[in-house]
Amino acid sequence: MSSPSTPSQRTATKAVIPVAGMGTRFLPATKAVPKELLPVVDRPALQYIVEEAARAGLPEVLMVTGRNKGSIEDFFDRTPELETALEAKGDQSRLDAVHASTDVAQVHFVRQGEAKGLGHAVLQAAAFVGDEPFAVLLGDDIIDARDLLLEQMLAVQAEHGGAVVALLDVGAENISKYGAVAVEEAKVSGDAAGDEVFRITGMVEKPPADEAPSSLAIIGRYVLPPEVFAAIRETPPGRGGEIQLTDAMLKLVDDGVPVHGVVFSGRRYDTGDKLDYLKAVVQLAVEREDLGPAFAPWLRDFVADLPVEGASPA
């Protein structure tokens, strides 16, 4: 019989989504509306993230909130007055959409209190998680529903234990914006049926390009063991005076805990800044069965009429 500490003995059932950030890149809109509730077509980015967790078999979700984020709790709560009004109008499609946002998962909330970094935000989930692995999903990254990144990460964690992070090759010119990793040369796995998986040997938060160990960046998906909470508690403030999750995970690496990276090659929509947010809205709208057939032809005509950059006006 295997011991209780073997990876196969524990299965992740919970997801943690930190949503305490101030959203300063989207001011003035985010003075009153949390950035996580800004619409990506007709659903807030946060709903896409919760739906992803539920699809991956994580029915319990904890959101780590901060000040002025009460509207997030309201969004995932029932709205009897609205539902009654839609029922009276016979507007079943919109009623179904409202129900989808409240029924997708069992959503819980906890306050971070002070904005001390991502590591500190994750630490607030310790009581919720207990003694089992769990996923962390950051709200700026929407993963296309057709790409099973989180499912693959959970499978890697179940097989190898320890922690698993999602990686993206962003190129040497962009790596200074991300947490970068060093990996063993040999792949753990990876074929046509799934993304490449590597054992991680080191990581550093936002390194200068000439000091980065690779061009593989950590993006906003993690599957973590409960041991990460002890590592966070022992992690002093790092870059920006905040407790960095990257630093706590590096401690896991140093302690011999297996940490693997899944190099994602699918469709990712970045809603973290204004330009990428606009791109995400366009990409997802074109893919929609109800919008794409009309939107795509209009978009082609609009783009065709745009002046060529650098060209003189007629």
TrEMBL record:
Family annotation (CDD domains): UGPase_prokaryotic
InterPro entries in the cross-refs: GalU_uridylyltTrfase_bac/arc, NTP_transferase_dom, Nucleotide-diphossugar_trans
Cited Pfam families: NTP_transferase
Catalytic activity: alpha-D-glucose 1-phosphate + UTP + H(+) = UDP-alpha-D-glucose + diphosphate
Top-rank lineage group of the source organism: Bacteria
Keywords (A to Z) from UniProt: Nucleotidyltransferase, Transferase
GO MF annotation terms: UTP:glucose-1-phosphate uridylyltransferase activity
Record bears the keyword Nucleotidyltransferase: yes
Documented EC number(s): 2.7.7.9
TM stretches of this protein: none
The Nucleotidyl transferase domain, residue ranges: 14-284
Single Gene Ontology BP annotation: UDP-alpha-D-glucose metabolic process
Family annotation (SUPFAM superfamilies): Nucleotide-diphospho-sugar transferases
PANTHER family, A to Z: UTP--GLUCOSE-1-PHOSPHATE URIDYLYLTRANSFERASE
Assigned protein family: Belongs to the UDPGP type 2 family.
Protein known as: UTP--glucose-1-phosphate uridylyltransferase
Species for this entry: Modestobacter italicus (strain DSM 44449 / CECT 9708 / BC 501)
Name of the gene this protein is made from: gtaB
